[in-house]
Design a protein that fits this description.
Blueprint (H helix, E strand, L loop, with lengths): L7 H7 L11 H21 L4 H20 L10 H25 L16 H25 L5 H12 L4 H8 L3 H22 L2
């Protein structure tokens, strides 16, 4: 069973836009934020942002999404939401980097056009996309280990065996369980992680 009852597509469908005159679905916004904000934060941190700056990036992206979705500027037929969101995050990080460079050079920040989209070379974009996938994976692992019904021992077994890569015999002895139990825990958590990652979309 899916950890999230709604996929990004159904969440987007539930978020009303101004043009329809319908009331905004606050629960859908909360669900969408809870689904993507951890991955956005981790992605920003992988790019060198501090935790506080990474939180600012997540908040900025969702403020932008509010405007985009309420004004009907997102076209679901144009591509996957995950790709669309990754582009927003990447552009926000590049924009922040450019503005920091301008400040360091003593150029007035007003000199940067707000609507100028940052352009990245293809190889840089590919590296950022790889980091986005890594951030999504790490966010899914963290969710599985902290926000699911796993026992405390199962969490620690997974951390020791799958994340710290301790030998299976060492982990089994440490927790007083069989090698088979250690392997089962890893399989179970990996399935949860795969299910969570599927929620983000490919």
């Amino acid at each position: 069973m899916s950890t999230f009852p709604d996929t990004p597509v159904t969440l987007l469908a539930r978020i009303a836009v101004q043009a329809t005159g319908q009331r905004t679905d606050e629960a859908a916004w909360v669900r969408l934020f809870n689904l993507y904000a951890p991955a956005i934060r981790k992605f920003a941190e992988l790019q060198g942002s501090s935790p506080a700056d990474a939180e600012d990036v997540a908040q900025e992206i969702f403020m932008r999404l509010v405007d985009i979705l309420r004004n009907g500027r997102y076209n679901a037929d144009a591509g996957r939401f995950r790709c669309y969101l990754a582009t927003l995050v990447r552009n926000e990080l590049v924009s922040r980097w450019r503005k920091a460079k301008v400040r360091a050079a003593g150029v007035p920040i007003d000199a940067i056009a707000d609507d100028l989209q940052p352009v990245l070379p293809p190889e840089a974009a590919a590296r950022l996309d790889a980091k986005w996938r890594l951030a999504r994976h790490e966010a899914a692992v963290e969710h599985a280990l902290t926000k699911t019904a796993l026992s405390g021992q199962s969490r620690e077994i997974y951390r020791a065996y799958a994340l710290e890569e301790r030998p299976i015999d060492e982990v089994a002895a440490r927790f007083g369980v069989s090698r088979n139990v250690v392997a089962q825990v890893k399989t179970r958590v990996n399935r949860m992680v795969a299910s969570l990652e599927a929620e983000y979309g490919e």
